Amino acid sequence: MLTRHIGDYHFLADAETGMTFRWGKTFDDNPSFAPVPELADISISNRCSKGCSFCYKDSTPEGHAMTYDEYCQVLDSLYSPDNGTVFQVAIGGGEPLEHPDFFRIVDETAKRGIVLNFTTNGGLLTPDVFAKIKGKIGAMAISASSIEEMELAKPVLKGSDGIKVNIHYILSSDSISEAVGLVKGEYNDILNGINAVVFLTYKPAGRGKESQVLKNEDDIDAFMKAIVISKCSCKIGFDACFVPMLMQRQAVRKEMVDTCEGGFFSVYIDEYMNVSPCSFSGGKDAYSLKDYDFYDIWLHKLQDYRDRVKNGCKRMCAVHDLCRGACPYYPQITSCYQR
Ligand SMILES: C[S@@+](CC[C@H](N)C(=O)[O-])C[C@H]1O[C@@H](n2cnc3c(N)ncnc32)[C@H](O)[C@@H]1O
Questions:
Q1: Is the pLDDT of residue 83 over 70?
Q2: What DSSP assignment string belongs to 186-242?
Q3: Does ligand 1 lie within 6 Å of residue 92's CB atom?
Q4: Would residue 231 count as lying in a domain?
Q5: Is 175 a domain residue?
Q6: What's the pLDDT at 318?
């Protein structure tokens, strides 16, 4: 169990379950941000051969990759002699399994006591890959943008027993109708062995198209109604970008959800070692680890971002004070902002 108490910031995290707890001056307070990020989202490369039509990173087989030594430098930079390091990293890209040193990266991260999670397109998963990562990672996620893609992921899970496998399901104008069926339990037969389906809001970045962004006229209401009485055989979860919609439509208890963590409790580091609030910042609010110390960036440079994105939402809804408002980079993905 990791425990961290820095001033009015308190954090508890259990590596076994992945469960984390955070509180401020009292259990009723939320701290304003974490002096040491709880999670670092690290893009180890922008190399991927799959060519997904929706890829927000516009990854290609020729994409730039961080070297193994640079990855170690990134982990070194996250370590604060006074306060320790991140609880977990989320490794993405590009395709992590196409990185020539992926397994060394897994071993190095585990050696440092940091929980590693990664997302993959699933194309390179084999029993041998599972054998190499078993016992060394927190969880892995396979990306899917339709039920058909989830079905394709099922056979590649052979040998994954003992590894927590999630599905990252991208919710777009095209995929939300099937997602309603998924939450109603219509596809439980393909969810055997899956820990959770995590719904991601579609971002119009890279190869992602504006026309695919979820709109109010899509099945959002039906989706929200379905999640309240989910019949899905595994757990369901949401990315942070979904939180304003969940809170505003009261699909979950507002006290139980956290607003966007990017730049406040989590940080993104790209394959060139640029640090920014989240992977969707598209080069904005980015500072290079080649020029600055990580904690100079986190504690000082990104304070400007934190000050700027305090909730400026003009809609006075029931959750106004708990919500952080629309995404600062892609406000159009926040459906209450669209209204
Ligand atoms: C860019 S992928 C890279 C990792 C890996 N190659 C994969 O396919 O999961 C990282 C995450 O972004 C998600 N993603 C990709 N394009 C997206 C988009 N336009 N909007 C939202 N999420 C997206 C993927 O589903 C995955 O969970």
A1: yes
A2: TTGGG-TT--EEEEEE---STT--GGGS--TTSTHHHHHHHHHT---SSEEEE-GGG
A3: yes
A4: yes
A5: yes
A6: 78
Q: Which atom of ligand 1 is nearest to the CA of 145?
A: 25
Structure tokens belonging to residue 31? 């701290």
* 165 ligand 1 Cβ < 6 A: no
Average pLDDT over residues 307-312: 81
Supply the range of the domain harboring residue 181: 138-238
Q: How confident is the model at residue 250 (pLDDT cuts 50, 70, 90)?
A: confident
**Mean of pLDDT values over 272-299:** 97
Q: What is the pTM of this model?
A: 0.95
Return d(Cα 133, Cα 15) in angstroms, integer: 16
Ligand 1 centroid–CA 50 distance in Å is 11
Whether 142 maps to a domain, the answer reads: yes
234 lies in some domain: yes
In short, whether 95's Cβ falls inside 6 Å of ligand 1 is yes
Q: Are 48 and 60 spatial neighbours (Cβ–Cβ below 8 Å)?
A: yes
Provide CB contacts within 8 A for 225, sequence distance 6+.
Answer: none
Domains contained in the chain, number: 1
Q: Give backbone dihedrals phi and psi of 264, rounded to 5 degrees, phi first.
A: -110, -50
Ligand 1 pocket test: which of 45, 50, 55, 89 has the largest number of ligand atoms within 8 Å of its C-beta?
Answer: 55
Ligand 1 centre to CA of 288 (Å) is: 23
